[in-house]
Amino acid sequence: MNRIKVKLPFTDIEIEQLEGGHPVTEAADFLQKTVADKVRKTEVRGLELGAGNGIITLMLALQKPDWQLRGIELQKELVDLAERNNARLGLSCRFTLGDLREFRSQLDYKGFDIIYGNPPWVKSGSGKVSPDFTRAMSRQEITCTMADVLVCIDWCLAEDGEAYIVYPMERKADLAKEVMRTELEVSNLFESELSPRSFIAKLKRKKLTLKW
Asked: On the chain, which terminus has fewer CB atoms closer than 10 Å, C or N?
């Protein structure tokens, strides 16, 4: 598939993406700005779930050069593109080919201080599926559901870690239901005019309460 150049939202820097692939979105910009603004730690082990061509992780790395950032992506062509973009920008992010549903064998248990992602928005069995498989996987819950994302975060997130995931407004109820199946809780919700159709949920581990 041919590659095209796209400009990062906050700079004149360009990266490459696949022609016909899922475009750079307002939600992606909203997510990276929220993570960059809200995470106060200086030494960070970060993980992006479903990194695509690497745009969110690369934008964060440009602003937070001391963070150690990794992205996992199911499609090899996109992993290769993310690595190419990373090298082109002279950054030290890692992008690996993998399936987040196989987290136990591919990702470190409680190994990440921050986890972030812009997972597929359209609920499984809903909406029209794009004929372009790369775009369809980015939009539809074909290979990855909300439950898959939350279970993976539950496994990977450090005890005092934070996770940030972006979803459309109509999936707030789904998130509230699914998060109850994990050891996570929604500690905050963020909305912005930058991406009015979406919200970002900040997830943390549930606080244990002692009963006497």
From this structure: C
